[in-house]
Amino acid sequence: VLDESQKSGWGGTVTGNGNLVLKVYFKLQYNVTISGDSHVTGAKVSDAKVDWNGSSTGTWNVAAGYSVAEVTVNGKTAAVSENKLEVKEIKEDTEIVVTTKANTDTKYSVAYYYQQADGEFTEDTTLRTGRTGTTGNKATVNEADKNTERANYVLDESQKSGWEGTITGNGNLVLKVYFK
Questions:
Q1: Residue among 130, 71, 78 nearest 105 (CA)
Q2: What is the DSSP annotation of 89-151?
C-alpha cells in the first residue's frame, strides 16, 4: 500500500545534471477480521487495516446464558478478558475467532397453579421453585413436582404442555404444574 506519510520525496525540480530522484514508498498492511459463532454479537475490530507491526483490538458481546469458550488468533488460543482482545505486533493477515459454550448454571423455575372455585387457575407464588440447568437443554418437571400436600387437589394431567421447555439464557423459562 502506498505510504502517504512519505510525500516529501514525491516531487522536485528537474535539473540538467540528472540528479533528481523521486521516491515513492510502499508499506506492508494487513487485514484484521473477527467472527464468532451464533451466540456472539456485535463483533468488531478497532482497525480492519493495520500497518506492519501495528495493533488492533477486537470486541464482542455474548448472548445471555453463554460464555466465551475460546478465542483464537490465526488458529492459536489467545487469553482474553471482558470480551476484548488486543492483538499486537501484527505481521500477517489476522483472523480473530470467538467460540462460546452454554452456561451450566442458567436459572429457570417451576410454578404451581391451583384451580379456584370459579374454575380459574392461580399461581401459589410461595411454592415457586428455582432451578438451574444448561442453556439450550430441555428441562422437565420431576415426579415430586407432580404431588401436592393440599387436601382435595389432584394433578391436572390435561395441562402437560407446561411440564417441559428449553432453558433460555435469560432465565425466563417457567415450567408449570396445575392441580384441580
A1: 130
A2: EE-S-EEEEEEEEE-S-EEEEEEEEEE-TTS-EEE-GGG-EEEEE-TTSEEE--GGGG---ST
pLDDT digits (tens, 9 = 90+) for 49-77: 999 999 999 999 999 999 999 999 999 99
Residue 1 CA, distance from chain mean position? 35
Instruction: Output the nine-digit C-alpha cell for 158.
Output: 390435561
Identify residue 130 by its one-letter amino acid code: G
Average pLDDT value for residue range 20-41: 94
Q: Cβ distance 146 to 177 under 8 Å? A: yes
* pTM > 0.85: no
